[in-house]
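Hi all, long-time lurker, first post. I run a small reading group and we've been trying to get comfortable going from sequence to structure in the token notation. Rather than ask abstract questions, I figured I'd post a concrete chain and ask someone more experienced to write out its structure so we can walk through it together at our next meeting. Sequence below, copied exactly:
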Amino acid sequence: MVSTYVSYDLVTRDMSKSLQRVSQEPQVSKDAAYYKANIGNVKTVDDLLKDDRLYDYTMTANGLSDMIYAKGFMKKVLESDLTDQNSFANKLTDDRYREYAASFNFSKETTDIQTSNQEDDLIGLYKQSLTNQQDDAATETSYFDTAIDQVKSVDDLLNNSRLTEYVLKANGLDTQYYSTDFLKKVLTSDPNDSTSYVNTLTTNKQTYLNMIAALGFNTDGSLKNSTAMTASAKEDMELSYLETVPSTEGDYQAGRETDYYKEKLATVTKASDITGDSRLFSYVKTALGLNPNMLKSTFENIVTSDLSDPKSYANTESTDGSYAKIAKMFNFDTNGDVAAGNAQNSDQLSTLTAQYMTNYSAADDKTTQSNIDFYSTQMKSIDTVDKLMGNERVYNMVMQAFDIDQTQYSKATIKKVLTSDVNDPKSYVNMTHNKALISLASAFNFKSDGTAGVPLLAQSESTITNTAKDYIVQKTRFLTGKDQTTAKAAAEKDAQYYQDNIVKVRTSADLIKDRKLVDFVLTSDGLDPSKVSNDMLKQLFSSDLSDPKSFANSQDDERYAEFVASFNFNTDGKLDKSTVMGAQNRGTMVNTENLYLHQTLETEQGDSNAGVRLALYFQRKAPTITSSYDILGDSALLEVYRTAFSLPSDMSSMDIDQQAKVIDKQMDLKDLNDPTKLDKFLKRFTAMYDIANNTGVSSSASAALAILGGGTTSASISADLLTSVNALNHS
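-- Answer (accepted) --
Happy to help. Here is the structure in token form:
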């Protein structure tokens, strides 16, 4: 018979190959295939319990095969709220039950039609849309300014869709409802002829008359003058377009207004020249931060004040001296005339225009922020697609954020989009192949019935909770007293950072950029972050977990694959809803499959040699051991420990705290973190197991003693250990 040590060494020398060998066994392969194909169909606890093959597979994987018969008991376990310390599973002393329940998503996860991250993204798109509007308006105005001068007939204008749309939008008309034939009849009408086409219209008649006045076409469609528009008419139309089309004023428009102000200021000879020109007066009020409704007379009284006279208007009507500062910005005498030179010298002009460029967007910024604040407030109470679409202000902002033309898509269509599953290639929204509509659907988490669904995050809510708990356990392992308290406080602070920021991660690239998050998850999985470079992370996340030969699956430590699987990223690094498979997400599926292989391997080895099974079990559970009480609470772990140190079975009759002290004295549990020291301990166990059970060939005993480092059995047991055992026997 082969010794326990040799058998154990043969299995663990290349654990990945040993597990692969097990996975290729016909029955194991069939069970795994069935599990993969059907676990996604499980939505409830009853679904799982009704499918014996799935239930048996998951129970076996979690080391609960001896409890498969107790479905009523296990139903209580699976229905437990793991966030409630008094729930059924949490009150059981055996952690296997809580771990089994935690591998499923039966506990209801939080629904939300839009996460804070999605909301921030939408608001960002809304702001960008305003900038895009300004940029587009500038582009179209620049084009119009040049192209309109090339027009030689009404047909030239109407055959150019960009020019036609510009004219219509500048006049506040919807471009969707106008035909070329209609516009030609309008623009070639004689406004002075009561029977002409334009004069027969009853809707928008004045608007059409304004268009005719601005565009100089004869009734035959030819030009009245050398160009279709005079410089003045073109300027007015461009100004109207810039005031009508973009929702806010941009730098382009502000620059045009500044140019206009500088040009006209040179012709100003009296204060009334400014107030008499609405554009000039508006410019000045904006630059100086004045009330937009300030009366002309008020402004004229300010700038014509004699500041040397304490009783002048500027000195008496503002106690803070603000009117006096305004008066100093201009060079008007008390009669309202320019006192000398120009209405403003170069310094005054430079100061005023600089203030305008600073202040011109203040009102728009206030409006934009008001819309954003309104949106954020309303989204706290909106919980259905109908409520979203019924709130016009919110709906308009959403449509603008994604640059969706509401005249092109009905609300019925948008509702279909919002309730589509963006992860289903055949869903309504994906069949449109419209990027804007797909982005819109991705910005919300509506279910097909229009109610709130569970958001797709980088990690599921249950995974986030379990990862945070595991991290705290890892950081406080083997610590006691003040050291444990201090370490726990620091770990909880790290956990808060993780929980606050993991929900903001949208891609694996986002995650890799934040090493604090990466290292947190690696640590929670018992992996050493210092051994994982960013390049390695990129290879891990680009791995196809369904391919046994992929980078993640090729690692000696299967926890790397489990680490990748705990995230909801596809191989492109983007969030993928398919990683959430019904009652289990991808991470718990991979973990369940690995556990099943380990359990099967251990069982098969145990059929030949129980010592090998015990050693394999201890090796698998070692990363979860946090104190000597974990060993005392698990009969298999305790058997390995007692055998390794030749302790008597009646040790278990002692007070639990005394037993813990013995373990802590004989064994430094921190060594379990060191693979080399763990391997050395398990070699000791296998050797002592052979001696205690008289297993193996005739040379097994001497081989075992050689492993232990001595020639006799007593040589392997220290004097301190014998003293401890003696104390146990007589206490």
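A couple of things your group might point at:
The two ends are 40 Å apart (CA to CA).
The first helix runs from residue 4 to 12.
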